Amino acid sequence: MRGESTTLRYASYLLRLWQEQDEQTTLWRFSLDDPRTGERFGFADVETLLRFLNEQMAAAAAAKNANTEAQ
User: Fold this and answer.
1) For residues 37 and 47, is the Cβ–Cβ distance under 8 A?
2) Strands of 40-43's sheet, edge to edge?
3) What is the rounded end-to-end Cα distance, in angstroms, of the chain?
4) How far apart are CA 69 and CA 56, in angstroms?
5) Structural domain contains residue 59
6) Closest Cα to residue 30, out of 39, 41, 21?
7) pTM exceeds 0.85
8) Residue 6 within any structural domain of the chain
9) For residues 34 and 51, what is the distance between their CA atoms, to the nearest angstrom?
10) Residue 64 located in a structural domain
11) Which of 8, 9, 15, 49 could form an S-S bond across to 43 if both were Cys, CB 3.0 to 4.6 Å?
């Protein structure tokens, strides 16, 4: 590894998706597993999943910018 100050440049998740039957419709459910931490994130719809991914990218970009400014 290069050093602790290195900003994460990628993330990997295991995506699982499945269908659940509601009284009237079929719903898609989603989960992401982070292999680095073992943490699992669950999502009731694709919009929430995408919002989470966008937040992760924004946080990584902010951390990179903060790290660059500190140098």
Assistant:
1) no
2) 14-21, 26-33, 40-43
3) 19
4) 20
5) yes
6) 41
7) no
8) no
9) 16
10) yes
11) 49
Concatenating the DSSP letter of every residue in 5-66 gives TPPP-----EEEEEEEE-SSSEEEEEEEE-TTT--EEEESSHHHHHHHHHHHHHHHHHHHHH
1 located within any domain:
no
pLDDT one digit per residue (tens) for the chain, 71 residues: 444 445 567 889 999 999 999 889 999 999 999 999 999 999 999 999 999 999 999 988 887 777 666 66
- Tokens 């931490």 belong to 37
Distance CA 68, CA 24 (A): 51
Split into its structural domains, the chain has a count of 1
